[in-house]
Amino acid sequence: MAKHDPDLTLLFQALSDPTRRAMLSRLMEGPAPVSVLAEPTGMALPTVMRHLSVLEEARLIETEKTGRTRLCRARPATLQAATAWLDDQRRIWEARTDRLEAFLATMQDEETSDEDRPDA
In 10 A of CB 33, how many CB atoms? Predict the structure, then answer.
């Protein structure tokens, strides 16, 4: 995956807000109308709609309007891009810490062997 993938940027920006994360968590349980998503936030409907549009732009959710009701659904497959990127980062950092650990062990072994030598 590219370092500066615009879709990944949108995804992480969408997930950066706790209100949006809460809405997405609720939608992972199943589809819900906007009114249900708005209820726990205490926010005005236009504010809730803005949060939902950010989630929709990042393709984390999809919405469907039926009559006067707008139903929202999670798109969990979109999170796979974030998971893949995070897995790559984890592998990189684990390799770095493994190399650091090996280097420190070598340094400690050298220090121990220097202490065991008699002074000349």
Answer: 15
